[in-house]
Amino acid sequence: MSDHERPAHGGRLVMGLAWAVLLLGLWLWGRELTGVRQGISAAVSGDVAAVGRPPRLDLPPAAHPLGDALPQRLDIPGLKIQAPVVARGLDAHGAIAAPPYDQAAHVGWYAAGVKPGAAGVALLVGHVDTQTRPAVFYKLSTLRPGATIRVLRDDGSLAEFTVEDVQAVPRAGFDAHQAYGPHHSGRSELRLITCGGTFDRTTQRYTANVIVSAYLTGTGL
User: Fold this and answer.
1) Superfamily of domain 71-219, CATH level 4
2) Of 21, 141, 148, 196, which residue is least crowded by CB atoms under 10 Å?
């Protein structure tokens, strides 16, 4: 999916198929597979960021995308999160495999996709809680547009993103392309994804997913 070098039609076809498979897995993941084993989160639904949002919020312009470099750490200063980033693939259902529960303080990055800071949409997933305690993305739904997210990369660079949207997307009628597709072509975008809504003890699943959308607005060394 991240192979942008192949000029031939065959390369575009392979990329398109990979994207379709990923979207199918994300659709399944969004509808059924992100539940955790015990719910301790508050209910959230709809446009979470709209709560208390100023009528007009001037967000900074997008920065030019960076080259490829592997993510090492995710920092969200407003939530006091400093989390190691680990590469993840797809699970047996074709969805992004979140870090194991014994690494609930880690964030998983879909390693076959876009690298954070490069052009396109990079996908990061994390648990909201475990059976016994909050996990790395427990407070993710409290982020607001304008908040800063930073990704430290293995070339020493720092990719700084600005939050533009926070949504709690119900699993009923879930649209993976709308949720995880690019908002504007040519930008470097980031999606942070975790469980949300309420915890259904009958199905042992959450009823929604919290999706934070951000875009690259600054860089540093």
Assistant:
1) Sortase (2.40.260.10)
2) 21
Is the per-residue pLDDT at 31 higher than 70?
no
What per-residue confidence (pLDDT) applies to 25?
52
Give the helix ranges, DSSP H, for the chain: 9-28, 176-180
**Which amino acid is residue 21, in one-letter code?**
V
Identify the burial level of 89 via C-beta atoms within 10 angstroms of its C-beta, where 0-12 means exposed, 13-18 middle and 19 or more buried.
Answer: exposed
Please state the length of the chain. Answer: 221
pTM for the full predicted model? 0.77
**In the structure encoding, which two tokens stand for residue 73, read together?**
């750490």
SS (H, E, C) 10-68: HHHHHHHHHHHHHHHHHHHHHHHHCCCCCCCCCCCCECHHHCCCCCCCCCCCCCCCCCC
User: In Å, what is the CA distance from 131 to each residue of 36, 69, 84?
Assistant: 8, 34, 21
Instruction: Give the pLDDT band (50/70/90) at residue 56.
Output: low
Distance of CA 20 to the CA centre of its chain: 18
pLDDT tens column, 71-118: 999 999 999 999 999 999 988 877 788 899 999 999 999 999 999 999
Helices (H) and strands (E) in the chain, counts: 2, 8
